[in-house]
Amino acid sequence: MAKDPVRVLVTGAAGQIGYALVPMIARGVMLGPDQPVILHMLDIPPAAEALNGVRMELVDAAFPLLKGVVATTDAVEACTGVNIAVMVGGFPRKEGMERKDVMSKNVSIYKSQASALEAYAAPNCKVLVVANPANTNALILKEFAPSIPAKNITCLTRLDHNRALGQISERLNVQVSDVKNVIIWGNHSSTQYPDVSHATVKTPSGEKPVRQLVSDDDWLKGEFITTVQQRGAAIIKARKLSSALSAASSACDHIRDWVLGTPEGTWVSMGVYSDGSYNVPAGLIYSFPVTCNAGEWTIVQGLSIDEFSRKKLDATAEELSEEKALAYSCLS
């Protein structure tokens, strides 16, 4: 039996990340090689012409799984009937802008898009927020889309998770697919905590802890963490543009694992609504280690947190609490 198409919304679809992401979705990277999709692409009116160009290219690529394309500047049309929404569109921070300025612009964008999703998306729509500040944008979206279950609103920290895997694989000169169970705790910002305390590497003689194989705690507690935290800035410096292909690829990873499940014994990092696990304040969107099964994520419980890690978990939670307060002040 052929599967029914899944409707996938990408906002900011004419931008850099959108341009990298839509062909991946159309090729089956996000939902699997046998899942037909209908792409809904939204962008702002000044980008309408560029968006139409992306639509033309999708037609020209003749993707067998792509069963339709909606390219529009109208949020209602874009959100109607969507099963998955990848929120890439947002207002970027420009030189000389205060955090509050960026926040107030994004609060108004996410408030209006949340209202459109609330009214027109499919009932069990899954939402992934990519645009920064991702955790707080997701929180605002949750606030204004009350009928979408809180567990269906997430933000992207899989990019940071994948960056951490990449750094360990390069350091140990192993395949990235042999490294697993790194964790990104907290905010998708420079306070995030990339944690390898529970990570392992598959070796010919079985799985070994990353700490044991690297055997350089100074590097793991220093340069490794700052490299992952600052990787986005390093790419902007090198490319003169922000990470697009890695962001698009990790968005696909996030949704694929969420929908199709994580492999047995493996967890991934997702920004999800905190229930107070690991003494993280409830009511923040915070990155935790999760496993996924049957379209649901579950926070991995019972991991030991040493004193070094505890401080890092608390610091990034504090930043998120401040961001939340700032965002809510922009609402009033």
TrEMBL record:
GO terms for biological process: malate metabolic process; oxaloacetate metabolic process; tricarboxylic acid cycle. It comes from Musa acuminata subsp. malaccensis. InterPro entries: L-lactate/malate_DH (IPR001557), Lactate/malate_DH_C (IPR022383), Lactate/malate_DH_N (IPR001236), Lactate_DH/Glyco_Ohase_4_C (IPR015955), Malate_DH_AS (IPR001252), Malate_DH_NAD-dep_euk (IPR011274), Malate_DH_type2 (IPR010945), NAD(P)-bd_dom_sf (IPR036291). Belongs to the LDH/MDH superfamily. MDH type 2 family. It catalyses: (S)-malate + NAD(+) = oxaloacetate + NADH + H(+). It is an enzyme of class 1 (oxidoreductase). CDD domains: MDH_cytoplasmic_cytosolic. Residues 6-153 form the Lactate/malate dehydrogenase N-terminal domain. GO terms for molecular function: L-malate dehydrogenase (NAD+) activity. The keyword Transport does not apply. Substrate binds at residues 93, 99, 132, 163. It comes from the Eukaryota. Its EC number is 1.1.1.37. The active site is at residue 188. Pfam families: Ldh_1_C (PF02866), Ldh_1_N (PF00056). NAD(+) binds at residues 12-18, 43, 106, 130-132. Keywords: NAD, Oxidoreductase, Tricarboxylic acid cycle. This is Malate dehydrogenase.
